[in-house]
Structures are given as C-alpha cells and as structure tokens.
Input
Amino acid sequence: MPYLADVARLDWAYHNAYHAREAAALEPTAFQLIHPDALGKAKFELHPSCKLIQSDYAVFTLWEFARDSVQKTLEDNIEQAQAALVLRPDAEVNVYHLTAGLTAFFARLIDGAALSQALAAGLDHSDEFNPSEAVAFFVNSRIVHRIDEPTQL
Output
C-alpha cells in the first residue's frame, strides 16, 4: 500500500487544520477594495490552517473512502495523481479535491507568488484550467488572511 503515507499526510493536515491558531479569514467583499490594476500583482498571506497535499495516488478519494462508513467499494483508479487543499477558515475543516491546474495555482500562492503568477502556473499545467473559476474559488474559500497590495501600479 504505497499510498498509505499520503493518506496519512492528508489526515494529519486535517488534524492540524482543526487545531491551527485562530485567524480571521477575509470575506469575499474585501477583494472589492483592491484596485483592479493592482489585483494581479497582489500577494496574499494565507490562513494558517491552509495545507496543500499532493500525491501520485488518488489521495483525496482514498481519504474520503476511509472516512465514509457507508461506502463499501472503491471504484476509482487509485494510481491517478490527486491533490487536496485543507482549510479551516471557521469552525469546520474543509478538504477540497483540486484539479492539476488548481493545484499549480494554489502551490504558487502558498509559495508567496502574486495572483497573476499563480494564474499563469495554473494555465501552464492544464489546458482545462479556468482562471475565472480559480479566482472565484480562491475568493469564496476564505483562504486569505491578509492582502499585500503592491505600492506602485
């Protein structure tokens, strides 16, 4: 079971997110305050509970299967690479299954890249990456703790 370590990493990320320090997550309306010309250059401090788990295996599917007491059979290909984003902006921990493009997008944001750089990474990794959907997910997930706007446009 070579995937077991990745499933354990995801479960541990869930545990750590649950116990992460409290921090105010920005509401989606906070993004309206950013000048449109500055948005692409803005950098973001992400919520302290945020963790990206990438695996060569179907880590999200396996983790969900292990947590679901009703589902009795695993029908997906477990040797398909998957990634999951773990986040707790409020009381409940959320775990999101990410596409390849979203994985690249969030990996760059976690590394401190500007929004435009993260969008470029998503486009580079997947022809199916939709920048509008990625930004909507980014804003509505409440993953952002603080926005660092560029001082010069």
Notes: The beta strands are 43-46, 51-55, 82-87, 94-98, 144-148. The CA atoms of residues 105 and 118 lie 5 Å apart.
